[in-house]
Amino acid sequence: PTMAHSEALLVLENFIDGKFVPCSSYIDSYNPSTGDVYCRVPDSGKEEVEAAVKAAKDAFPLWSSRSPLERSQILNKLADLIEHDLEAFAQAESKDQGKTLKFARTVDIPRAVHNFRFFASSILHHVTECTEMPALGCVHYTSRAPVGVAGLISPWNLPLYLLTWKIAPAIACGNTVVAKPSEMTSVTAWMMCKLLGKAGVPPGVVNVVFGTGAKAGEALVCHPDVPLISFTGSTLTAQRIVEKSAPHCKRLSLELGGKNPAIVFDDADLSQCIPTTVRSSFANQGEICLCTSRIFVQRGIYSEFLKRFVVETKKWNAGNPSDPTVDVGALISKEHLEKVRNYVKKAQAEGARVLCGEGVDSLALPPGNQKGYFMLPTVIAEVKDESCCMQEEIFGPVTCVVAFNTEEEVIERANGVKYGLAATVWSRDVGRVHRVAHRLQSGLVWTNCWLVRDLNLPFGGMKASGIGREGAKDSYEFFTEVKTITIKH
Ligand code: NAD
């Protein structure tokens, strides 16, 4: 990899106790669309995590004693400040992650703003329980209190979006936090730190340590003064977190991988289904945990679906993420691109048909992007259910299309993977969509749509896709400790 000579390297610093502090060693961070190193990220370890946890612990008594309304006002102020700099955040997210500027502008950063506004509002509306036992002269009620220092670990695919989805509820509830974003996408978290003081977030309430999972992440997971960990990332890393946190019996929220099916019945409205399923397969380069990667199409419409799906997919251009006509940006890293390409090769070796994209169509890139990590959206057909392409999370712009005959059969096949995060069902038969939705082993089921979210409702996965849920009530419950109090009069 070559260095970007024209511009100075961006050097990030940890944010501890309201101040930026340099680190003794750094990791190179790449611009995925050029292949250049453009940023240096602190390579934090035990020492930095220790300092951050101490700051968070010290800030806890005061922050947790503020009223929900005071905390809410601060969250709203922070939302306004991020929104004010939306364009700068979007540019930074696109450059750091490889995603299109269009996507960062319309999805990532607006959602980060909304996360703060949403929890600023929802924290004001929780009601605790109360029961009476008149015969015994007793009344019971529950009270909820923040837990303490929350450890927050987030992935590289939706960097600020997913980090703020944790920071917002954690601090709204009165906890203080130590956050560790992905070492591959740390820039927008660092930019947000610059706004915390201005928003009125007291020093020590939000601390951010940058670095790798193995060093900084594990130090956080193993720290005895961090009683809860909210993690979004891969199932493999989650297993390690469960293991490492076990001696401390920590409270864990785990949002993990997916292998999400789309089920298309022969009465589906294809004019809606096809463009939405192309989007659900390839949005953000297919690097969303909710992306569709197995499309089951009922036999009667299979060949028509396939033909129209490929035509629609070919409309998605890959290339320079800042180009407004581009829909598919760069993948996160060279290694990840190789991994995704290898899945396509394996499918071919097993006798599947690659209908468009990788290895079939040629990708023309502008001169500045020749070394970027690009690949065309790829559609594979005639893949066996037991193939690794149908079982493992690829997390790239690759989707598999297969045929099915009956409702019973497709439910079994859709459930036949270790994951259970999200599914889509396409049919105009109301009875059928309810039946199928109930039987799918999936934390989220979208019918005749995709990625329509009400943040009030639970988000999370079954089976290897996670433990716990996040959302207005769920995050409130996760980030608070409940107590039952009984009064006899
Ligand atoms: P990852 O598991 O490699 O890393 C996620 C985070 O964990 C990073 O910050 C990383 O540094 C840290 N980490 C790694 N090893 C660690 C360890 N031993 N201890 C503590 N922290 C550690 O995942 P990724 O590659 O960054 O992200 C992609 C994965 O995330 C995919 O599997 C995707 O499905 C999943 N994801 C899930 C959701 C969801 O809400 N369910 C959302 C987005 C992404």
TrEMBL record:
Q: What does the UniProt record say this protein does?
A: Catalyzes the NAD-dependent oxidation of 2-aminomuconic semialdehyde of the kynurenine metabolic pathway in L-tryptophan degradation.
**Pathway named in the protein's UniProt entry:** Amino-acid degradation; L-kynurenine degradation
Kindly give the InterPro entries that the UniProt entry links to this protein.
Ald_DH/histidinol_DH (IPR016161), Ald_DH_C (IPR016163), Ald_DH_CS_CYS (IPR016160), Ald_DH_CS_GLU (IPR029510), Ald_DH_N (IPR016162), Aldehyde_DH_dom (IPR015590)
What reaction does this catalyse? 2-aminomuconate 6-semialdehyde + NAD(+) + H2O = (2Z,4E)-2-aminomuconate + NADH + 2 H(+)
Q: Where is the Aldehyde dehydrogenase domain?
A: 25-485
Question: EC number(s) of the enzyme?
Answer: 1.2.1.32
From which residue to which does any coiled coil extend? none
What is an example of a GO molecular function annotated in this UniProt entry? retinal dehydrogenase (NAD+) activity
Q: Which domain of life is it from?
A: Eukaryota
Q: Which UniProt keywords apply?
A: Cytoplasm, NAD, Oxidoreductase
Gene Ontology annotations of biological process type: retinoic acid metabolic process
Give a Gene Ontology cellular component term annotated to this protein. cytoplasm
Q: List the subcellular locations.
A: Cytoplasm
A Pfam match is Aldedh
What residues make up the catalytic site?
255
Q: What is this protein called?
A: 2-aminomuconic semialdehyde dehydrogenase
The UniProt entry's sequence similarity note says:
Belongs to the aldehyde dehydrogenase family.
Which residue ranges run through the membrane? none
